[in-house]
Amino acid sequence: MALLQLSGIEAAYGASQALFGVDLEVAEGEVVALMGRNGMGKTTTIRVACGMLPARAGRIAFDGQDITKLPSHKVARLGVGLVPEGRRCFAPLTVEENLVAAARPGHWDFEAVSKLFPRLAERRDQRAASLSGGEQQMLAIGRALMTNPRLLILDEATEGLAPVVRQEIWAAIGKLKAETGLAILVVDKSLKELAKVADRAVILERGQTVWTGGIDTLEREVTDRYLGV
Ligand code: ATP
């Protein structure tokens, strides 16, 4: 059974419809890449999955439970940890305060997050506002982990970061997969990095799921058609 299942999702911003039929599944322990060119509906799909934007049609289930109409704080409580586009930490709080504020009981505590991102431990007492972009991203991922989610959703977690910092983020995602078997839904522009870590890909085109399958079965023709510029 899928941990997260979106079927026939439609959604709109006011009168402007953005999703026209999104189907997406993430199984327990699976890493799924949500792909598609700019503006095709990836972030909107994530917002609907997290209860931040209502679905106009379709159904969302988490661990078999219908969550289609559930508000975002309840979806979070069920075990969906979101790392939103553009990070969003509490700037005036320190690294440790940011992490502790998000904490819910489970494997992930300050110690465990520090092991994954040693830089956060080094910056423990620094305010989030004073961190580099990469460190803020690590903090955003750490915050989501501190909620001890069953599914982690990463929206453009490497965007705008220096290559060396990107590598650190990808390494952490690889570790999460290998060592914890956490289910992950990831949006990113780097097909090369996604191919290393993801099991399956779901491709959106104009708000619709147009391709889904093993990421290692993605053929050139498909990437050219749906991901090429
Ligand atoms: P990107 O990679 O650029 O973030 P995306 O695949 O995540 O793209 P979305 O951000 O989900 O795409 O956008 C899907 C569609 O919805 C686009 O046509 C976009 O212009 C529109 N849209 C997104 N956010 C809003 C908003 N707040 N109000 C109105 N329309 C929006």
UniProtKB/TrEMBL annotation:
Sequence intervals crossing the membrane: none
Residues in ABC transporter domain copies: 4-229
Q: Which domain of life is it from?
A: Bacteria
Check the record and name the PROSITE patterns matching this protein: ABC_TRANSPORTER_1, ABC_TRANSPORTER_2
Q: Membrane: is it a keyword of this entry?
A: no
Q: Name one GO molecular function term.
A: ATP binding
Against SMART domains, the record matches this protein to: AAA (SM00382)
Q: InterPro entries recorded for this chain?
A: AAA+_ATPase (IPR003593), ABC_transporter-like_ATP-bd (IPR003439), ABC_transporter-like_CS (IPR017871), BCAA_Transport_ATP-bd_LivF (IPR052156), P-loop_NTPase (IPR027417)
Q: Which UniProt keywords apply?
A: Amino-acid transport, ATP-binding, Nucleotide-binding, Transport
Provide the GO biological process annotations: L-amino acid transport
Pfam (any one): ABC_tran
User: Family assignment?
Assistant: Belongs to the ABC transporter superfamily.
User: PANTHER family given for it?
Assistant: ABC TRANSPORTER ATP-BINDING PROTEIN (PTHR43820:SF2), HIGH-AFFINITY BRANCHED-CHAIN AMINO ACID TRANSPORT ATP-BINDING PROTEIN LIVF (PTHR43820)
Identification of the protein by name: ABC transporter ATP-binding protein
Organism, as annotated: Rhodosalinus halophilus
Task: Give the taxonomic lineage as stored in the record.
Answer: Bacteria, Pseudomonadati, Pseudomonadota, Alphaproteobacteria, Rhodobacterales
